[in-house]
Design a protein that fits this description.
alpha/beta, 10-stranded mixed beta sheet, 4-stranded mixed beta sheet, 13 helices
Length: 419
């Protein structure tokens, strides 16, 4: 439920673990580029939005939508709309929700080999009730099947998919043992891990896997919960009402959150991406704001992802934040603030997942982390301007221009030696 937008007010089966080639929806698809692997939830979202202020004890006129959701699923779909071909590992039932999700997944052209289907699975469903402003007022989540059926045994069947993958993303809907199995599998193949916390409660699952994690993307409340879990203390507290981020300057907010950020970095996480809603993003790392770049094969320049790579490389020069020596960067912590973008907000629920999807897609093309997060924020803007969690399509020129705006307005907040 994280967003990074400044609002402009207005209204099983046997698994074939070979990736080259695979059959997707009856078509043979050659995977020319390395594929990110995404492990986590596929969820049917039910969104209920009243047309007037709701009163307790009675029904209220409004609209109810069924939407494909789940953090991992949203991230993977977003990546596919940006030209990437992520490999999804998840679990679905043969019920109505599972059938809806699988039918939509087939339209993406992505492999469904990693998606366990079982008649005993109750497909995860989340029902959210919104207020008239589009914010979540209440919600009920039935996602226990992910922990029960998305097991280490199922996940380990797909270890070969990580051999060429530039990155593995796991969402915290996974059980502790499944998270550990996923991260150890990635470590064995040298694949960097992105941890998406999902919620405050589930974010605490970082404690057993932090040493394997390269990237983490908490909001400020998840950050506090993760810092407490990793430090074994309760010394970090959520922002008090009178210290809410909307009432603070960017610098003041960073100073409040910096001790918690440093805990994550000291515990081995290399890049912490703190999402701040309308206040943008804090990109914090050991080694400098643009030094994390994953080696990948050359992207086809005529593809959507290839064109986006070229546009971002032109608009967002990768060397403008490299005014430190290699020794200096390797021993310092850096924090950069990247601003949000104005948007005509329709719904906020897909913004955080699309931010991660946009960032991961960009990393997989060979862009550095600064450039990639700039793209992620631009993609998040597009997401909040539609009803669905993920837009049906993205405008290449709009994403490139918005990423340039974010990148050009980024500000270094902090750099300090960890020695």
């Amino acid at each position: 439920m994280k967003n990074n937008i400044r609002e402009t007010p207005q209204p099983r089966h046997e698994a074939n673990t070979s990736l080259h080639p695979v059959v997707v929806s009856g078509r043979e698809s050659e995977h020319e580029d390395p594929e990110a692997v995404i492990i986590g939830g596929m969820v049917l979202d039910i969104h209920a939005t009243p047309s007037i202020h709701a009163n307790p004890g009675t029904t209220t006129p409004g609209k109810v939508f069924y939407m494909e959701g789940g953090v991992a699923r949203n991230v993977a779909e977003c990546m596919s709309k940006l030209g990437a071909k992520p490999y999804m590992i998840s679990a679905l039932g043969f019920d109505m929700a599972g059938n809806l999700l699988l039918e939509q997944w087939k339209t993406t052209g992505l492999s469904k080999e990693g998606i366990l289907k079982n008649k005993d699975i109750e497909t995860p469903v989340v029902c959210n009730i919104f207020d008239v402003n589009g914010e979540v007022a209440a919600g009920v989540a039935s996602v226990e099947a992910l922990e029960k059926y998305l097991t280490p045994d199922w996940i380990l069947r797909f270890k070969s998919t990580l051999l060429s993958a530039p990155v593995l993303m796991v969402d915290a809907n996974l059980s502790g043992p499944s998270l550990e199995a996923s991260c150890k599998m990635a470590a064995d193949t040298g694949c960097p891990v992105w941890f998406e916390p999902v919620s405050v409660t589930k974010s605490r699952r970082i404690s057993s896997i932090a040493k394997y994690v390269t990237f983490a993307s908490p909001n400020e409340d998840e950050l506090i919960a993760m810092a407490n879990a990793l430090s074994g203390s309760g010394e970090f507290h959520p922002l008090k009402e009178n210290h809410k981020k909307d009432n603070l300057s960017t610098e003041s907010l960073f100073q409040i959150l910096k001790p918690a950020i440093l805990v994550l970095l000291e515990k081995g996480i290399k890049v912490v991406l703190v999402t701040l809603g309308s206040n943008g993003v804090f990109l914090c790392s050991k080694g400098g704001p643009n030094c994390f770049k994953i080696p990948v094969a050359k992207t086809n320049s005529s593809s959507f992802s290839g064109q986006l790579y070229n546009a971002v490389m032109h608009n967002c020069p990768p060397n403008c934040y490299s005014g430190f020596s290699e020794h200096d960067r390797s021993n310092r912590v850096f924090a950069v603030h990247l601003p949000s973008l104005p948007a005509s907000v329709v719904r906020l629920t897909g913004a955080g997942d699309c931010l991660v999807g946009g960032t991961l897609s960009s990393i997989c093309t060979g862009l550095d982390i600064m450039q990639s997060v700039s793209v992620g924020i631009a993609v998040a803007k597009a997401a909040v301007e539609v009803e669905s969690n993920v837009p049906s399509a993205f405008s290449l020129s709009a994403i490139a221009d918005d990423a340039k705006s974010v990148f050009c307005h980024a500000k270094v907040l902090f750099h300090q030696s960890m020695m």
